[in-house]
Design goal:
CATH topology: TIM Barrel
CATH class: Alpha Beta
Radius of gyration: 17 Å
Largest sheet: 8 strands, parallel, barrel
Order of helices and strands: HEHEHEEHEHHEHEHEHH
Helix content: 40-55%
């Protein structure tokens, strides 16, 4: 897939009712052997996207990780950066995250102002993404790093209004995340409320540990399901998760 084509492909899949499955790879938690195994399983499972990144990324493996994926398969690679430093020119696209669920101005716009010139030079497809952290029942790295409280898990109206505001401000994607290792994944009722209130594609991640949950999230209105932590513990879940997501019936309008 050529540059500048990732977002249109996401929108086309949403318009046709097709659900997508993305594997999140944290460069801090993989090596050459593990990433090759994940790629092999992802190809066999028909995974739609790789997301690469994390809240910290303390290793120097980001570029190498992206290059290995790009050289080994045709699955698009989207960067999921925890900071402006987590950028690789070898990827296909960058989710330009704005933490719209928090009130930390640095993560709403501050870091973007500083990073914009350098990121534009990479030639990456930039996809503005309204990032919403939802309380997953456990402290998360992103909440600690961002110094921002997550949205309450039972406040569907707040999530809905936040997502609507993000869309109206021009965000091309809304990404709701309960965080890595969440004890409580995002409720289907919240996903449904948000999905019905926005037109842009909706990404759901955090705490999705079994195929049934992935399936139910898609039925509720998620367009892309992201799983990372569960796959790090058991790579064989890739096939089951992808099958569950892709099994959601396409709605015919």
């Amino acid at each position: 897939m050529n540059l500048k084509e990732i977002y249109p492909s996401i929108c086309e899949r949403k318009a046709s009712g097709k659900k997508s499955f993305a594997v999140l790879v944290d460069p801090d938690n993989v090596d050459d052997q593990k990433i090759h195994k994940v790629i092999e399983l992802a190809m066999a499972a028909g995974v739609d996207y790789f997301l690469v990144g994390g809240s910290l990324v303390i290793s120097n493996y980001l570029d190498e990780c992206v290059k290995i994926i790009k050289h080994s398969c045709s699955i698009p690679v989207l960067l999921f950066p925890g900071s402006p430093a987590h950028v690789s020119k070898y990827a296909d696209a960058l989710l330009y995250l704005s933490l719209i669920s928090g009130r930390n101005p640095e993560l709403l716009i501050g870091q973007h102002v500083v990073s914009a010139p350098a990121i534009k030079k990479t030639g990456l497809e930039i996809i503005s993404t309204g990032y919403m952290v939802i309380d997953g029942g456990a402290p998360t790295t992103v909440s600690y790093i961002s110094n921002a409280s997550p949205l309450p898990a039972d406040k569907n109206e707040i999530a809905m209004c936040t997502a609507m505001a993000g869309e109206m401000l021009g965000m091309k994607l809304i990404y709701m995340d309960a965080g890595s290792g969440a004890k409580v994944p995002i409720k289907e009722s919240m996903i449904a409320r948000v999905s019905k209130s926005i037109e842009v594609p909706l990404i759901i991640g955090g705490g999705i540990t079994d195929p049934e949950k992935a399936y139910l999230n898609c039925k509720a209105g998620a367009d892309i399901i992201v799983v990372g932590n569960a796959i790090e513990k058991d790579e064989s879940l890739i096939m089951e998760m992808a099958s569950a997501v892709h099994s959601v019936a396409v709605k015919v309008s």
